[in-house]
């Protein structure tokens, strides 16, 4: 029985440590909640009631913030910018290394044909979508990027639900090529085939 208690303590420690490495607040809260639950149980089983009490508080705090995450109303807006936008260039430069993780060969090549859209989340430029409409109604996606702290699929869901916006630009079908397994999983989750 002692070995199982030790393993539970180690598991709880690892979960808490992993949670602190998450850039996504949602992942941080969920993993931290799992770690706190494990520590709570561990504290009860070994008779360390202060450990159990502190982790009970951490569980309540995590549940409170998860409730706020899932129940808060967020506002999204699409903001078209020109290929010569200074802010666009600052954004691309700032997130260059992060963009290369998902689309290693992406290089911004300004063109007047491109449609460049910032996705604002509560007025924060949280995502960038760049592509080019084709004559046949297809839209070739060059970049679909969300900054790390907003990677919870809400931006992608919002963007791909904006059929009216795309129809206004003569776009009937979005085309995107996966650049790695993570990108392929994302595209599949967004409904690409």
Describe the structure in your own words:
With 193 residues, the chain is of the alpha+beta class. The chain folds into 2 domains: 2-71; 76-189, Aminopeptidase, CATH 3.40.630. It contains 8 helices and 5 strands; from the N terminus they run αααβααβββααβα. It has helices at residues 2-19, 25-46, 49-71, 86-94, 96-102, 154-160, 163-168, 181-189, and strands spanning 76-81, 115-121, 124-133, 138-146, 173-175. A 5-stranded mixed sheet has the order 1-2-3-4-5, with helices on one face. A hairpin with a 4-residue loop joins strand 3 (124-133) and strand 4. Helix 1 runs antiparallel to helix 2 (25-46) and helix 2 runs antiparallel to helix 3. It is elongated, with a radius of gyration of 22 Å. The model has no long low-confidence stretch (mean pLDDT 88).
Q: What form results from the Cα inertia axes?
A: elongated
Share of helix, binned: 40-55%
What's the order of the H and E elements?
A: HHHEHHEEEHHEH
Average pLDDT reading = 88
Give the terminus-to-terminus CA distance.
Answer: 49 Å
The number of distinct structural domains comes to 2
Tally of alpha and pi helices: 8
Poorly predicted runs of 5 or more residues: none
Structural class: alpha+beta
- What would CATH call the class of the largest domain? Alpha Beta
Number of strands: 5
Fill in the CATH topology of the largest domain: Aminopeptidase
Computed over alpha carbons, the radius of gyration is 22 Å
Strand composition percent: 15-25%
CATH superfamily of the largest domain: Gcn5-related N-acetyltransferase (GNAT)
């Amino acid at each position: 029985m002692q070995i199982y208690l030790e393993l539970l303590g180690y598991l709880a420690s690892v979960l808490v440590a992993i949670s602190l490495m998450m850039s996504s607040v949602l992942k941080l809260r969920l993993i931290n909640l799992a770690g706190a639950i494990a520590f709570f149980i561990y504290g009860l089983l070994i008779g360390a009631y202060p450990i159990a009490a502190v982790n009970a508080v951490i569980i309540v705090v995590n549940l409170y913030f998860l409730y706020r995450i899932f129940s808060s109303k967020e506002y999204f807006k699409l903001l078209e910018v020109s290929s010569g936008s200074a802010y666009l260039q600052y954004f691309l430069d700032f997130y260059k290394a992060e963009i290369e993780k998902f689309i290693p060969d992406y290089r911004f090549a300004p063109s007047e044909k491109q449609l460049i859209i910032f996705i604002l989340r509560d007025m924060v430029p949280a995502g960038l979508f760049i592509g080019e409409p084709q004559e046949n109604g297809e839209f070739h996606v060059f970049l679909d990027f969300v900054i790390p702290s907003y990677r919870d699929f809400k931006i992608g869901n919002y963007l791909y639900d904006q059929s009216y916006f795309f129809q206004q630009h003569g776009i009937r079908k979005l085309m995107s090529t996966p650049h790695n397994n993570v990108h392929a999983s994302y595209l599949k989750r967004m409904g690409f085939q």
